Amino acid sequence: MASIEIKVPAVGESITEALLAEWFKKDGDTVRKDEALFALETDKVTLEVLAEASGTLRIAVAAGSTVKVGAVVGAIDSAAAKAQPSAPAPAAAEPAAVATAAHRAPAPSPPTATRPAPEPEKAAEPASGTPPPAEGLPPSVRRLAAEHALDVSRIPGTGPSGRITKGDVLLFIEAAKAAPPEKPVAPDAAAGAPACPPCEGPAEEISRKPMSPIRKRIAERLLKARQNTAMLTTFNDVDMSAVIELRQRYKESFQKKYGVSLGFMSFFVKASVEALKAVPEINAFIEGDDILYHGYYHIGVAVGSEKGLIVPVIRHADRLSFAQIEQAIGAVVAKIKENKLQLSDLEGGTFTITNGGVFGSLLSTPILNTPQSGILGMHRVDRRPVAVGDAVVIRPMMYVALSYDHRIVDGREAVTFLKHIKECIENPERIMMEI
Q1: Which listed residue (34, 290, 410, 420) is catalytic?
Q2: Judging by beta carbons within 10 Å of its beta carbon (0-12, 13-18, 19+), is residue 167 exposed, middle or buried?
Q3: pLDDT at res. 382
Q4: Is position 294 annotated as part of the catalytic site?
Q5: Which pLDDT score, from 0 to 100, does residue 124 have?
Q6: Which CATH number fits the domain 3-83, given the four candidates 2.40.50.100, 3.30.540.10, 3.50.50.60, 3.40.228.10?
Q7: How far is CA 87 from the centre of its chain?
């Protein structure tokens, strides 16, 4: 088969559409089998779609478009790749080629010797055919023209039947920036009148950017948690001396044996499992008029990314060693960076831990990750004076916070949970160490 359609893959039962965030190749580029073609962003994950065959890429849907699952967004033409001529295009076709390349580029670039910019005075002349009205233009063209307050009737179109493309708008903007602005001399200005004060000074700029599907989903879930739960937060502080001393003593041998660093998170995951065993209500969900108690411990670990907060799940954390927990965290972080996170990595969590301390947070009240009934917030470690017996000493201390659903968890259970966390961290020998 000479041409293979590129379709939006199914990424989960509850997901019917996604955002085609970015094409990694341009229209007409040669691609190899299993090479990343584009990034697909849903309300839960961002993933890369790979080429099913080698050939020439034909893009049918531009980046930034919302597409349905199963929709055709392009094709790979293996026959066109073999028959592609090697002779350069004639010079007369250069402007159209430049416009097409600009349409595919993610951002405008300044004109170079090989990409001549159109004359500013010619930009106002209509191209062949009559440009369509603004409401008939593609969304990307309308959005770009609106951002720069452009009159689309002054932009020459190089598309079929004089259609204005995104590349035409980008070239028009480039030409306007490259040409010195015309300043008509007013009569009073010629007579030496002072300049208008409001015209001086820096302009006040406002930019508008649509929310990504992931950011929309985060907003919806956080708002739902605040509206549909009786959320309350309780606090405690933890002496981190013992954990820090253990990390210093074993970090080299741990790294050498397991290939990962020994971090704070594995201690808190282990401590949380012990605390959840003591207070099972925090590991339970409310479903209608019932309470669902879980006999397993799937711990979500909140990870900050460029696209927003993502909570991959470490399954059966009670069965994992410290090394396996650190390896699992490292694996999901790598998946996030490479856009390879799957829905299965995010589903099924029964409890969540978030570490604002990596960003310098001293104290916070984390919001529940519904339908879960509890979330533990870690914070930065500060050396503070504390009373030990009858003496005041300086110790590395961390505030911890537990937000919980008061419909299912009482204050006594919440305080008991944090006491277990404190005891396990301050006496880590209570947790099985496998190093």
Answers
A1: 410
A2: buried
A3: 96
A4: no
A5: 41
A6: 2.40.50.100
A7: 42
